[in-house]
């Protein structure tokens, strides 16, 4: 499942995100959602989240 819809992402969900520094390469980072940072119900590049380890990025896949 892609991470473009806010309703699909819940704190505690296991996701893959792309970090700002990895946007060119598209390298994904896996982690568990701590906070959802995007307020709008959808975003074309993925909903921005903070992982439990503090990293921030846009959700590309929900596991």
From TrEMBL:
InterPro entries, sorted: DUF2196
Annotated Pfam families: DUF2196
NCBIfam families, A to Z: YwbE family protein
Protein name (record): YwbE family protein
Organism: Salimicrobium flavidum
